[in-house]
Amino acid sequence: MTRGVTKRYLEIGGYHPTRLSNTYRLYKKGWTGVVVEPNPEVKNLFNKIRPKDKFLNIGVSEDGGNLKYYRYLIPALN
């Protein structure tokens, strides 16, 4: 089914390496990719659970420069 397909992904807004993850099942099947997540508190967790992924601790915006990061009481909403 994936013959000839590059097994790579780009996940914007990783939140958590396994919970509510759009890419964890792919990772478990041997895929690798880049996870972009601005929350600095999850970097070590991603590096521990998904060491083959590249974790970028940055936000994404159409505007350049520094942005303010807001944290909510429910981390999945960040």
TrEMBL record:
<protein>
    <recommendedName>
        <fullName>FkbM family methyltransferase</fullName>
    </recommendedName>
</protein>
